[in-house]
Known about the structure:
The chain is mainly α. It has one domain (2-103). Helix content is 55%, strand content 0%. The chain is built from 4 helices and no strands. The N and C termini lie far apart (86 Å).
Amino acid sequence: MKGRANSAQMPIDSTLAKCGRYRPGHPSRRLERFQFWRDRLVSLGEAVEEATPTSKALLKALKDSKKGDHWLNSWIAIVAIGLTLFFGLVQSIEGAIQVYKAYHPQAESA
């Protein structure tokens, strides 16, 4: 209850209600208008653009060989994951066959 008493004492800025709705394309949201945070917002935007591509853009990134090291690493990772899945499936099927043969042995004809 002590936390509520402290939060109730904090004043709320009366101009907060006049802000309106957030519209991304509005001119007041452009980087040129930010005086204090402009440099940090620009570096943050660049970091987001250079981040790992999303799953939808992954195929586009794999087709784009401009960034050679990223392109090659992506293909190597996909091939390694594909081989891992393939051999895991083969081992699972082989294990299931071995279990079946252990519980249902065939009579040897000699």
